[in-house]
Design goal:
The complex is a heterodimer of chains A (287) and B (332). With 287 residues, chain A is an all-alpha fold. Chain B has a single domain, classed as ABC transporter involved in vitamin B12 uptake, BtuC. Classes of the chains: A mainly alpha (287), B mainly alpha (332).
Chain lengths: 287, 332
């Protein structure tokens, strides 16, 4: 493998890892703070991708589509939390699994009714539709760098929100001791709603920025959901830092696995998970 | 975080009576039912075995597995590999081999997953099942995304003597029914054996069980392996009945369906799993008949059950009995 190929694969793996992080961060926060296992998280990714597809056609601009779609996704998250999820924070994991599995069916069918079952491509914005030449024959698409950039900016924003702001302090307090935070006057219900909507928003934005590369297709949420589970298990549930490191690790193993060991590629990530389980059953960064 | 659930291990007389009636109905059904419905009820019985096998984990031991379909699928594939293209394979060695194969896969995966608890267990079982899914999905040698055909049902002859012929729809029906009864009796006995008591203890309080000197990991691994092997029995029958296996059999929708069956019927007593499997498969049939958008109906139904009746049909009964008993003691 020459250096240019290596660089391309490395950039791809970082881009994939960061994208996974956007989903895994929401998943791990929602579990860490509200104690909910959410199988429907992949559906939010799918929803985002389809919103990106529809809105970019409507606005004629992907940037506007992403902004509009993010607002819609957050509102959707707030409604869903208020209507259903809020009543399941204290329920058994089994009930949460079933609730969110039922939601997957509902979201898939609504997607089928609203958008049909065809695969749709989403155009890359003209401004980003060019490549950086690396050698005579190889080049790297700028749009993939844009995906990494958006994800990194959001990851940084998430870090600042949680560790530097008053809201973030309340979120951390709520995660550490819910009852104590509540008795000190933190409106924990509001915090939960915000965290949930944030998770939905992050997943949807991930879907939107990924749509031009992956295109949009039925059941696109399921495979990405399971990858996120692997990321969260490796990183340790509730740890955003763990999710970031483990997402990048999974991105590396998956991308280079496909190049170096194509026949085993599908399984390598799971073997990584098995190894981590043997070594640290609670994940690498269990809080 | 978890709420105590209603567990009815001892079945009330009324439920026992209903089960006996159900058994009589199943015995008589092929006499009156058309071929289509005989096949449908056979499939329901196969799913009942699958649901019972999961109930050993979910209802008895308190382990929620979202990857149970992997063992179901592995045994189905085992039958597909064992059956030659032009002749049937002998039932007498292919069945034990497929079941043992599923049990072995469950043992290996179980070795990793029983180290985890609660939510980790759910996610890890799902992830490993997906690994098995991709193993078959990605490899053309293993059938790939198209799956494999099984041209013949297993052959039950012993040294040239044929006690029953599984190619017959009704024979296959009764063969499956016999296995449903066998698995039910086996699991009920297991439930009241020392092993079953230990597994129940793990569900109620694993820390206390460990403090009492039980190696809970070993017990959980045993339950996981037995459950996987019995899921394999169901998967073998599925492959034999439909003559076709594909990776979807191992997908997490299949695993989630089994969880739903147990919730619907009531957990921890195996009878509920049977009732739930019949109810769920029938609903699936009805919903698919009504509209091509059946997923909307099934999804709404699942959400409704979890919101309104999380303890299942038998659980609601138990709740009412408990409430009544409490009321009586107040008056007394």
């Amino acid at each position: 493998m020459d250096f240019a190929t290596f660089l391309i694969q490395l950039l791809n793996s970082v881009q994939y890892g960061l994208l996974l992080f956007m989903l895994a961060a929401g998943l791990t926060l929602i579990f860490g703070i509200m104690g909910v296992v959410n199988l429907a998280h992949g559906s939010f990714y799918m929803l985002g991708a389809y919103l990106g597809y529809s809105l970019s056609g409507h606005f004629g601009s992907l940037t506007l589509a992403i902004l509009g779609g993010a607002v819609l996704a957050v509102l959707f998250g707030l409604a869903l939390e208020w209507l259903l999820f809020r009543h399941f924070y204290h329920r058994d994991h089994l009930d949460q699994v079933l609730l969110t599995f039922g939601l997957i069916y509902i979201f898939e069918e609504l997607r089928s009714i609203l958008w049909g079952d065809d695969v749709h491509g989403v155009p890359i914005p003209a401004m980003l539709d060019w490549s950086i030449p690396l050698t005579d024959t190889l080049s790297y698409p700028v749009y993939r760098l844009f995906i990494s950039g958006v994800c990194m900016a959001l990851a940084l924003g998430l870090y600042l929100l949680i560790s530097k702001t008053r809201l973030g302090m309340k979120i951390r307090a709520g995660a550490f001791n819910r009852d104590m935070a509540e008795s000190l006057g933190v409106n924990i219900k509001l915090i939960h709603a915000i965290v949930f909507a944030l998770g939905v928003g992050l997943a949807a934005v991930a879907g939107m920025v990924a749509a031009p590369v992956s295109s949009v297709y039925p059941n696109m949420g399921s495979s990405v959901l399971i990858m996120c589970f692997v990321v969260v298990v490796i990183g340790g549930i509730g740890s955003v830092r763990g999710a970031l490191i483990s997402a990048l690790l999974v991105g590396l193993v998956d991308t280079f696995g496909k190049v170096l060991l194509p026949s085993m590629a599908g399984m390598l990530v799971y073997m990584l998970m098995a190894a981590v389980l043997l070594w640290k059953p609670e994940g690498l960064f269990k809080q | 975080m978890s709420t105590p659930r209603a567990h009815i291990e001892v079945l009330p007389r009324s439920v026992q009576f209903a089960l006996a009636l159900g058994l009589a109905a199943l015995l008589l059904f092929p006499v009156v039912g058309s071929d289509f419905y005989v096949q449908m009820v056979t499939r329901m019985m196969i799913m009942a075995i699958f649901a019972m096998s999961l109930d050993l984990l979910q209802g008895v031991t308190g382990l929620v597995s979202l990857g149970h379909a992997a063992y179901f699928g592995v045994a189905g594939y085992a039958l597909a590999f064992l059956t030659p293209a032009d002749t049937p394979v002998s039932l007498w060695w292919s069945l034990p081999l497929a079941v043992a194969g599923a049990g072995l896969v469950a043992l290996v995966i179980g070795f990793f997953v029983v180290r985890t608890h609660g939510i980790y267990f759910i996610m890890v079982t799902m992830a490993f099942a997906q690994m098995v899914f991709y193993l078959f999905f990605d490899n053309k040698v293993l059938g790939g995304s198209d799956g494999l055909y099984i041209n013949f049902r297993p052959d039950a002859s012993i040294f040239g003597w044929l006690p029953f012929d599984l190619e017959g729809r009704k024979t296959f029906y009764y063969f499956t029914l016999a296995l449903v009864i066998l698995v039910y009796v086996l699991l009920r006995r297991l439930l009241w054996s020392p092993l079953g008591r230990a597994l129940s203890g793990i569900r109620i309080n694993e820390h206390r069980m460990r403090a009492m000197g039980f190696g809970t990991r070993g017990y959980k691994l045993t339950a996981f392996t037995v459950a996987g092997a019995l899921a394999g029995l169901a998967g073998y029958l599925w492959g034999a009945q439909t003559g076709y296996v594909n990776p979807e059999l191992m997908g997490f929708h299949m695993s989630a369906h089994a969880i739903m069956m147990i919730i619907l019927g009531g957990m921890g007593n195996f009878a509920g799993a049977i009732v739930g499997a019949f109810a769920f498969e029938y609903l699936l049939h009805v919903f698919k008949d009504i509209t091509k958008h059946w997923q909307l109906l099934m999804g709404s139904f699942i959400v409704l059950v979890v919101v309104a009746a999380p303890r299942g049909l038998l659980g609601m009964l138990g709740q009412r009995r408990a409430a009544k008993a409490q009321e009586d003691s107040h008056h007394g």
